[in-house]
Recover the amino acids of this structure.
């Protein structure tokens, strides 16, 4: 309502955030939070073996250093930039949501930033001083202690961000008591952190296993041991993760299912929830079996199998993030703001006046017979475009095409009947916010777009219009009128 | 100043009643008092931009030294030494950027996000562009030995990174400049129409020169610790001095291309001591350059301190202008909210 609308009509706005976000969380979990402890442990093996098998010791140390090299390059480039990219993309796609979250969580994000600066400094010291640390056992010992310290720091960044993620799903007491602490103390915080930590550890182990495939050729004296130890690491964390998953799963319905409006929606949700759960369980079991094989018979484990746990766990993580994202819908901030960026408290006014009169960046402050299609486009941009495109991924035209017999034209009346009720069927959709005239315009726009396909550009390409109802002139006029009356 | 205001308003776009939007702010209180956020914003931004300067300046100087190194091998070693600092500075540049980003998000939500959206295509491209530049910098740094015999190729890796790193600040400046002028938002059609606004290019040149000056001074300090000799060290002073000299021309160009409706006396009062410190730093550098060989570096810390003061004043001036440009809009937002 108060920002020019950025829009990507091909891939959709959600995909932009999802792509950057998932890439970031994969790197963060598999190459930082769960990976640093593995690297530190491998370095420690090398240190311990110095006395008895010095020829092996050097190999362990070199393996750990090479692994850290990969983590160093990836985390300080793709990892760091996708982290910033999340900020950039969410601010473009849903400025109302991130603007609100920052007002509440500034302190948490600022603390996160301090921890993050230190983490980057420590990662650089840890990697760049590696070769120097090999000059004496004392230096090595300090270096390993530093790795342990870095492990704690990496985990802290997750511990902070999870508070915010949990908050978006269940604001807990924040809705009535708008304080920072009540946001952090939301009911999903501990379960999610408990679940995410071992999952990150498993991902770190799986990535290390994958790197063994690349760095250690067959016949290398430590290859089997490395496979076996890393498999053991995976085996140890799997039950911890399973307990976390169960705890989390038990908490979610309590927090979420109450919000679902109808029994049909609840059933639809549970069905979907279970199908994703199958992926999660399948992935965990698969990685567990490979790890078991690797632990018991490291020599027999085929090279190609080493990549299986990594792929399986990435699927696991991806599904988990999707469930999390889905669970908070139709809200972007539970019970406070819908996914379209409109606040729940404003819905009655929108329903009454329409959304267009309240919008600052629209070419049509009201629907008229002449501007109907244009007004419909504006309604679409305000109410639907955060999740839907016109012609691309999750296109509204296609959605309605799929509800129409092949060969038939779309039916405006059917759309007008359906749109006000759709949130009852699709529990993850916000209710349609506008009034009857806007509903009419929206249907006319979709109908027209189906008949005459055309591109739909966002403010980043075609600029923005300013509603005559929200200009400096309008504000002055209103004040003059108010003071006159 | 009123005289200037009237005179220059004739040339600057008149704030139109019908073309200036009055959006509503997010209806949640600021997380901290406004003054505290402003201090945090200015200081954290300066810290960020310091490392951005070192990253950009370092990669440009690496390029220069490696090209010269094809004929004079000692320059190749120098290039390598500079490249080592760049990959460290670039990591700090990114991570230190998060605090000012967060703070500007909180303080100027409606202004910043709106200009983000209007320049969105290039704005989001910053993410892949900088990632690519960083990977190129690493590729360059870790293949010095491997491409010993393919120098042209090795140099072009860094050249590609430099090209990207030169583009990114232009995107940032366009966005941060557009944010100040809501009265122009209705005219903007895509990034390039916002880029050609009066003040963007002078600001960009001002920034580039600052990068070279700061990096020159940094490399002097760094290489002195590493035990480099007089000739090398003197060159870095020379660079810092030359770049500062150019700033004496670019600074006023930047100032006079600012839309004048937001220029006020406070801005001038903050600028003047800033300029004074800058000139002092240059005098000190000149004395170093002209002084005896064995005394080189004696004034290094005074120069660093005086230039830090310069940067603090310039950064504050930057904020004073922003506050003045946005004040009438913030006032309108407040007025419209009392309905």
């Amino acid at each position: 309502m108060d920002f020019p609308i950025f829009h990507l009509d091909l891939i959709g706005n959600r995909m932009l955030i999802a792509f950057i976000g998932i890439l970031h969380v994969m790197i963060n979990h598999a190459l930082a939070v769960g990976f640093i402890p593995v690297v530190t442990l491998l370095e420690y093996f090398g240190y311990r073996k110095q006395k008895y098998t010095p020829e092996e010791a050097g190999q362990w140390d070199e393996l750990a250093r090479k692994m850290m090299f990969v983590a160093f390059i990836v985390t300080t480039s793709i990892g760091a930039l996708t982290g910033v990219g999340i900020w950039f993309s969410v601010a473009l796609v849903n400025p109302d949501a991130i603007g609100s979250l920052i007002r509440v969580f500034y302190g948490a994000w600022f603390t996160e930033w301090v921890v993050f600066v230190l983490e980057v400094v420590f990662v650089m010291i840890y990697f760049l001083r590696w070769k120097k640390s090999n000059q004496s056992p004392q230096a090595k010992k300090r270096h390993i202690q530093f790795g342990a310290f870095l492990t704690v720091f990496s985990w802290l960044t997750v511990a902070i961000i999870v508070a915010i993620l949990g908050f978006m799903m269940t604001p807990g007491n924040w809705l009535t008591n708008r304080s920072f602490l009540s946001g952090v103390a939301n009911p999903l915080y501990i379960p999610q952190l408990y679940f995410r930590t071992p999952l990150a550890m498993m991902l770190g182990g799986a990535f290390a296993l994958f790197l063994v495939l690349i760095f250690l050729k067959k016949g290398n004296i430590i290859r089997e041991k490395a496979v076996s130890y890393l498999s053991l690491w995976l085996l140890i964390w799997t039950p911890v993760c399973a307990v976390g998953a169960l705890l989390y799963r038990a908490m979610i319905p309590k927090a979420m299912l109450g919000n679902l409006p109808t029994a049909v929606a609840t059933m639809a949700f549970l069905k979907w929830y279970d199908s994703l759960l199958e992926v999660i369980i399948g992935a965990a079991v698969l990685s567990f079996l490979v790890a078991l094989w690797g632990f018991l018979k490291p020599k027999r484990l085929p090279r190609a199998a080493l990549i299986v746990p990594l792929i399986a766990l990435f699927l696991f993580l991806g599904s988990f993030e999707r469930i999390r994202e889905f669970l908070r819908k139709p809200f972007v901030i539970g019970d406070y703001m819908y996914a379209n960026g409109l606040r729940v408290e404003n819905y009655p006014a929108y329903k009454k006046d329409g959304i267009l009169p309240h919008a600052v960046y629209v070419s049509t402050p009201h629907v008229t017979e002449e501007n109907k299609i244009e007004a419909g486009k504006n309604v679409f941009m305000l109410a639907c475009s955060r999740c839907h495109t016109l012609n691309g991924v999750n296109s509204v035209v296609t959605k309605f095409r799929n509800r129409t017999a092949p060969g038939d034209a779309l039916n405006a009346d059917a759309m007008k009947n359906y749109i006000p009720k759709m949130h009852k069927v699709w529990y993850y959709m916000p209710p349609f916010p506008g009034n009857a005239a806007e509903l009419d315009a929206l249907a006319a726009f979709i109908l027209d777009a189906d008949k005459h396909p055309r591109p739909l550009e966002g403010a980043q390409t075609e600029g923005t219009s300013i509603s005559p109802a929200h200009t400096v002139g309008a504000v002055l006029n209103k004040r003059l009128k108010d003071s006159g009356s | 100043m009123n005289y200037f205001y009237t005179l220059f308003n004739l040339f600057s776009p008149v704030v139109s009643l019908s073309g200036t939007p009055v959006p509503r702010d997010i209806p949640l209180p600021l997380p901290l008092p406004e003054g505290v956020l402003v201090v945090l914003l200015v200081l954290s931004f300066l810290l960020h931009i310091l490392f951005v300067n070192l990253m950009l300046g370092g990669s440009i100087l690496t390029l220069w030294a490696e090209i010269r190194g094809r004929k004079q091998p000692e320059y190749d070693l120098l290039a390598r030494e500079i490249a080592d600092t760049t990959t460290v500075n670039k990591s700090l540049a990114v991570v230190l950027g998060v605090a000012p980003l967060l703070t500007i998000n909180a303080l100027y939500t409606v202004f910043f996000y709106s200009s983000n959206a209007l320049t969105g295509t290039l704005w989001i491209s910053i993410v892949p562009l900088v990632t690519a530049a960083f990977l190129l910098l690493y590729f360059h740094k870790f293949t010095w030995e491997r491409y010993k015999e393919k120098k042209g190729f090795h140099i072009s890796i860094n050249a590609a990174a430099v090209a990207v790193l030169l583009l990114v600040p232009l995107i940032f400046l366009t966005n941060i400049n557009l944010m100040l002028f809501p009265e122009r938002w209705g005219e903007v059609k895509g990034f390039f129409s916002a880029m050609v606004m009066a003040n963007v290019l002078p600001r960009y040149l001002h920034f580039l020169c600052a990068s070279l000056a700061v990096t020159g001074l940094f490399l002097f300090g760094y290489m002195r610790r590493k035990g480099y000799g007089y000739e090398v060290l003197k060159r870095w002073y020379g660079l810092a001095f030359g770049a500062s000299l150019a700033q004496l021309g670019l600074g006023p160009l930047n100032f006079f291309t600012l839309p004048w409706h937001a220029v006020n006396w406070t801005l001038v009062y903050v600028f003047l001591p800033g300029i004074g410190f800058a000139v002092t730093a240059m005098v000190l550098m000149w004395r170093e350059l002209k002084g005896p060989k064995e005394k080189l570096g004696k004034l290094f810390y005074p120069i660093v301190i005086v230039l830090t003061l310069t940067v603090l004043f310039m950064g504050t001036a930057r904020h004073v202008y922003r506050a003045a440009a946005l004040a009438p809009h913030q006032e309108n937002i407040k007025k419209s909210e009392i309905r």
User: Anything to note?
Assistant: Chain B touches chain A through 64 residues (CB under 8 Å). The CA atoms of residues 61 and 316 of chain B lie 29 Å apart.
